[in-house]
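User: Here's a chain of 331 residues. Predict its fold as tokens.
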Amino acid sequence: MTDTLPGQAVAATPRPGGRSLLRGIPTSAWVFIAFIVLFIASGVIRPSLFTLDGLITTVTFASILAVASFGQTIAVIQGGIDLSVPNTIAFAALSFLTWNATLGPVLALIAALAASAVIGFVNGYVIAKIGLTPIVTTIAMNGLLFGVLLLNFSLSELTNVPDFLKAMTSTKLPFLGSSIAAVVPLALVLMLLLHALLRWTGWGRALFLVGSSEATAHLTGQPVARIRISGYMLSSVLAGFAGIVIVGYYNQAETMMGAPYLLSSVAAVVVGGASIFGGRGSVLGTLAGALVLGQVSTLVVVFNLGVTVQDMVYGAIILVVVALYGRSHSR
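Assistant: Prediction complete.
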């Protein structure tokens, strides 16, 4: 039995066209495709890069950048941004190495992450309760932390890194006849844990809701201020953890060590498909964005363009992606 009247034509069910199928592909998949294209292009320019070792080098760099950018992902999803990431990285790293001498590695690690959580709490409280914008608040916190670093560490460099941290980050693991640094599987495990937190918990879903529409979150009874504060706390803890990971891999720490991650952490997040307006993003996309930036960095080195040009490229990428998302958001 049909729902149509006698003599009435039955409308044919529209078949999904090519454009509809393309729209169904996740943004992170497109970013991975962009990375593959860039990797092949690098191989065409310099064949020595189109090797397993060349791929491993890029993936290792991208893994470290991804760990440094996961906290930024949390902040952007909830409609904010965390520009205190650079000096949170440096503060946690230098504090960890300093406290390690008296507390031991385990207590020093816990204390450094706890200090990072306090930084995030202050950021979140000022934004959620006092009403200052995320950009102003986190830039001010970044400056405050830089002052603390200069007063306490005086541009010093610390190299007494615990063995367990080296083993966790820089140990070479066998991989397809070559070797890969332990920081790569570490980044993948962290990504999976954060993905589960964001996608399969009530807190994660609430974070997306707050980023999409704070008014709607209020109407549904969500504790918006508490969610924002906890989001910034997690962002800072992840930045602090990134600082400790960077120390383990590079076997040193100094006051300016977080500076390269100001632009790159934001770029990895937006290239990975997160909306700078909030409500959209994923740690998988951030990892894909880090891979793209890693390959861009390789091309910069190949052409001997220097760090300044690399920062210019990162800035241009952020401007283009944000402009595209802004146009889509206004529509």
